[in-house]
Amino acid sequence: MPTMSNQLGEKREQSYAEVSSFQMSDSISRNMEPVKTGRIFLAAVAANLSAFVVGTCLGWTSPILPKLKSNDTSDSPLDRPITSEEDAYISSLIAIGALVAPFIAGPLADRIGRKWVLLSSSVFFVLAFVLNMIASQVWILYLSRVIQGCGVGFVMTAQPMYVGEISTDNVRGATGSLMQLFIVCGILYAYAIGPFVSYQTLQWGCLVVPIIADVVFFFMPESPYYLAGKGRKTAAVRSLQFLRGQSAEGVHDEMAVIQANVEEAMANKGNMLDLVKVGSNRKALLICAGLISFQQLSGINVVLFNSQSIFASANTGLDPAIATIIIGCVQVASSGLTPIVVDRMGRKLLLLISASVMSIGLAALGGFFYMKLVVGDISSVLWLPVPALIIYNIVYCTGFGPLPWAVLGEMFPANIKSAASSVVASTCWILGFLVTRYYPALDALGSYYAFWLFSGFCIVAFFFVMFIVIETKGLSLNQIQVRLGSKK
Questions:
Q1: C-alpha to C-alpha distances, 308 to 187, 255, 312, nearest whole angstrom
Q2: How many CB atoms lie within 10 A of CB 71?
Q3: Per-position b or e across 271-288, b if 16+ CB within 10 A of its CB
Q4: Measured CA angle at 305 (ends 303, 306), to 5 deg
Q5: Residues 143/131, Cβ–Cβ less than 8 Å
Q6: Which of 145, 184, 344, 423 has the lowest tally of Cβ within 10 angstroms?
Q7: Considering the chain, what is the average pLDDT of its residues?
């Protein structure tokens, strides 16, 4: 005899199947009005300016930590060099704020809207950079990094929800991949400016970015899914008209689909327990949390936060600041490829390529540091660290960088999406904190241990993607739910 949960699952699956017959089209509507996808990308780009701010926070430590560690304190807000322990905390504490914030941002996104959560993230960023300016003690820098993390958590929770809900089926992969592009642009901004300006000038340069982001995004519409869920159908139609560039009649069919989805979600209001009680949600959570976990276990934050220090340690003969800028440029260029290819090649193939090639690049980098310690004479392989990190960053930025967040934005039904986003974002930053906090201790034993460990995690990630992750290329949000709940 089927249980109540099975019956509900069957009804939900039947409902999704029924709604899928009315799936939105990216090229025509009931009046043959073409969808102006440029409008979707305009809103997605405006939303992702907040991701650019996240990038400035992540890249901030690479040029700043050498200033804080220098015996010459003329370009430091402190009156002494920081210790290695303080270095580790300054790098890692951003993850603590980003860990806690999603549990506030998720419910807020359902209460005040995805747009306003993204706009409010700038309050944290502005406050953090002001604290950096007036910091005279290390604990103020600690506090600033935690506050930065709160802003990061708000962005990482609300942005995938917003972009996933405003996009049509055939561009959702591209728009979802924009987050990584804008994050690495923000990182490059910090990399390129930080080594060549004073400490205070960099803080001012970072402070203006969230203000500009808010001014631009303020003029974008709220998610039509959120508006429909609040019973504001007229506002939802206007939002959809702006995003599709169509008349009210032209968006009628798509609005009917959204309304049906929202009504079903409201009738089956979800909570945290539904993430593990409902089979399709459980599978989606495994996929999203797994991808985010392997993203962090690939060691990306170690590379981002410590790029200059890694190149200085490698002693390649190339100015560490210049090498770091090269890496930043590679990240931007490769991240720009993802929106172009993701809806053609699919999420799964790009993730498989990313995991396998990252493991090779990290293993090569570990091998370099091992030879430096054991052999001593490494003149014949001094060239290795730069190309190894370039290859690593290319495949990260086209795979495990953007795609876990893009998948998160499309894996969960509306009634559970905010709770799922909170859990996955917090998983990301728990591991982000652990990796960055304890990397210095592992590095003290030998840098090769750290890079070989990250390489091993990438190998495990390859098999996780191969056997667990489902392909969502070209599927609507409803079809993804059917795929998650279906039996082989």
A1: 13, 50, 6
A2: 7
A3: eeebbeebebbebbbebb
A4: 65
A5: yes
A6: 344
A7: 84
Residues 6+ apart with CB under 8 A from 351: 291, 399, 400, 403, 461, 465, 469
- pLDDT tens, residue by residue, 278-332: 888 889 999 999 999 999 999 888 887 767 677 777 676 677 778 788 888 888 8
Please state, in angstroms and rounded to a whole number, the distance separating the CA atoms of residues 436 and 366: 17
pLDDT band, residue 486 (cuts 50/70/90): very low
Q: State residue 238's pLDDT score.
A: 92
Residue 140's pLDDT band (boundaries 50, 70, 90)? very high
Residue 129 has pLDDT above 90, yes or no: yes
65: its two tokens? 């930590």
49 to 22, 106, 118, 172, 308: CA distances (angstroms) = 33, 20, 10, 18, 25
Angle (CA) 394-398-399 rounded to 5° is: 115
Report residue 190 as tokens: 């910090």
| SS3 letters across the chain | CCCHHHHHHHHHHHHHHHHHCCCCCCCCCCCCCCCCHHHHHHHHHHHHHHHHHHHHHHHCHHHHHHHHHCCCHHHCCCCCCCCHHHHHHHHHCHHHHHHHCHHHHHHHHHHCCHHHHHHHHHHHHHHHHHHHHHCCCHHHHHHHHHHHHHHHHHHHHHHHHHHHHHCCCCCHHHHHCHHHHHHHHHHHHHHHHHHHCCHHHHHHHHHHHHHHHHHHHCCCCCCHHHHHHCCCHHHHHHHHHHHHCCCCCCCHHHHHHHHHHHHHHHHCCCCCCHHHHCHHHHHHHHHHHHHHHHHHHCCHHHHHHCHHHHHHHHCCCCCHHHHHHHHHHHHHHHHHHHHHHHHHHCHHHHHHHHHHHHHHHHHHHHHHHHHHHHCCCCHHHCCCHHHHHHHHHHHHHHCCCCHHHHHHHHHCCCCCHHHHHHHHHHHHHHHHHHHHHHHHHHHHHCHHHHHHHHHHHHHHHHHHHHHCCCCCCCCCHHHHHHHHHCCC
Q: How far apart are CA 159 and CA 175, in angstroms?
A: 11
Residue 35's contacts (CB-CB under 8 Å, 6 or more residues apart) are: 25, 26, 27, 29, 168, 244, 245, 246
Distances (CA, A) of 416 to 68, 198, 409, 469: 43, 46, 12, 20
Enter the tokens of residue 402: 């953007």
Q: Cβ contacts of residue 360 below 8 Å, gap of 6+?
A: 391, 455
Tokens standing for 225? 């899914």
Name residue 437's amino acid.
Answer: R
Burial of 458 (C-beta count, 10 Å sphere; 0-12/13-18/19+):
buried
